[in-house]
């Protein structure tokens, strides 16, 4: 079950006393936890102390005390524990001791656990399931799903994307391997706020609102590279590298574009065949077709290897030299005319 499916069930009245939400993206997991917590406990109930929130490591005796304390005014009390280590990060003995505390689960308590790591083999998780717990994954969206998700979100608010705005978003999202629904919702809300009073959303609207995102920065950079415009590409690269983790976020986006270009060379047929095979928007497929032959497969592989080397260096603690990334961008812009 996905988090979105779980939310729909809760809205329909299907309730449980134990929920476990997990996923790779920490921000998306926390956002989903916040959303579910709001469905389980009203603002008035939360203000009255019916929802306790803790994060990270929490003393086992404090958890035992909370679990055993019966609500003074009756009803059900809730605990939202973000980053609960008993879902897989804690030691085996601690996890086993925690499992003993949750069986049987008291009717007056509700538990919401959110984490990026979940080991379903642990005694604690099995005890939660045996007590009636429900688990849901905070799934990420693939690029080809994100544009439709974004458009549907706007449609629910009575807005419509113009065709060129939709195509631009498809290209923008294609630079990422996966996108968090929470991030998409945040950006969609910004667009809705910016376009209040208008039913149609233009290309200028979405570009204005999403221009500052890392995805948009990489999209503008890739556009300049594809056009061979080094003079435009290098300032965009410098801007992206100014933040502490800008380059770290940019490298995977550049690598994805290189992989798409390589994969497009192996697909026979036109725009529709390419879009279906690579699972990209037809607008993206059309751009890939136009770029065919611009860069040799050998150079594409070389650039991918160098990006992997730079990313590995960052992960191992080696400081990224912006000049190295600039050399790769220049080589890419020049379509390999310069010697490696």
Care to count the β-strands?
Answer: 7
The SSE order reads: HEHHEHEHEHEHEHHEHHHHHHHH
Helix content: 55-70%
Whole-number total of structural domains: 2
Number of continuous helical runs: 17
Quick check: average pLDDT?
84
CATH class of the largest domain: Mainly Alpha
Keywords summarizing the entry:
alpha/beta, Rossmann fold, Zinc Finger, Delta Prime, domain 3, 17 helices, elongated
Give an overview of the whole structure.
It is a single chain. The chain folds into two domains: 3-137, Rossmann fold; 144-333, Up-down Bundle (Zinc Finger, Delta Prime, domain 3), CATH 1.20.272.10. The chain is built from 17 helices and seven strands. Helices cover 58% and strands 9% of the residues. Strands 2-3-4-1-5 form a five-stranded parallel beta sheet. It has a two-stranded parallel ribbon with strand order 6-7. Helix 11 crosses helix 13. The chain is elongated. Helix 4 (60-68) links the parallel strand 2 (51-55) and strand 3 (77-82). With 340 residues, it is an alpha/beta fold.
Short description:
This protein is of the alpha/beta class and 340 residues long. Helices cover 58% and strands 9% of the residues. It has 2 domains: 3-137, 3-Layer(aba) Sandwich (Rossmann fold); 144-333, Up-down Bundle (Zinc Finger, Delta Prime, domain 3).
Strand and helix layout:
Blueprint (H helix, E strand, L loop, with lengths): L2 H9 L6 E5 L3 H15 L2 H5 L3 E5 L4 H9 L8 E6 L9 H10 L7 E7 L7 H8 L3 E4 L5 H14 L3 E2 L1 H12 L6 H14 L5 E2 L1 H8 L3 H13 L3 H11 L5 H19 L6 H8 L3 H10 L5 H19 L6 H12 L7
């Amino acid at each position: 079950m996905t988090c979105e499916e779980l939310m729909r069930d809760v809205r329909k009245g299907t309730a449980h006393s134990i929920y476990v939400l997990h996923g790779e993206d920490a921000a998306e997991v926390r956002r989903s936890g916040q959303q579910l917590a709001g469905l389980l406990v009203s603002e008035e109930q939360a203000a009255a102390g019916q929802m306790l929130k803790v994060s990270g490591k929490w003393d086992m005796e404090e958890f035992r005390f909370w679990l055993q304390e019966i609500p003074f005014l009756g009803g059900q009390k809730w605990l939202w524990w973000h980053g609960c280590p008993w879902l897989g990060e804690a030691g085996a003995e601690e996890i086993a001791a925690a499992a003993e505390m949750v069986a049987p689960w008291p009717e007056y308590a509700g538990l919401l656990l959110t984490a990026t790591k979940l080991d379903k083999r642990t005694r604690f998780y099995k005890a939660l399931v045996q007590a009636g717990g429900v688990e849901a994954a905070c799934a990420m969206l693939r690029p080809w799903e994100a544009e439709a998700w974004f458009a549907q979100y706007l449609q629910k608010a009575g807005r419509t994307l113009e065709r060129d705005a939709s195509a631009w978003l498809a290209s923008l999202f294609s630079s990422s391997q996966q996108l968090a629904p929470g991030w998409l919702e945040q950006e969609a809300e910004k667009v809705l706020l910016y376009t209040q009073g208008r039913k149609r959303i233009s290309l200028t609207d979405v570009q204005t609102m999403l221009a500052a995102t890392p995805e948009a920065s990489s999209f503008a950079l890739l556009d300049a590279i594809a056009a061979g415009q080094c003079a435009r590409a290098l300032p965009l690269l410098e801007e992206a590298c100014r933040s502490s983790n800008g380059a770290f976020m940019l490298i995977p986006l550049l690598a994805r574009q290189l992989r798409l270009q390589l994969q497009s060379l192996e697909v026979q047929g036109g725009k529709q065949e390419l879009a279906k095979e690579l699972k990209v928007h037809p607008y993206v497929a059309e751009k890939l077709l136009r770029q065919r032959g611009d860069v040799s497969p050998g150079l594409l592989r070389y650039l991918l290897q160098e990006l992997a080397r730079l990313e590995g260096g960052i992960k191992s603690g080696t400081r990224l030299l912006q000049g190295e990334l600039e050399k790769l961008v220049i080589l890419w812009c020049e379509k390999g005319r310069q010697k490696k």
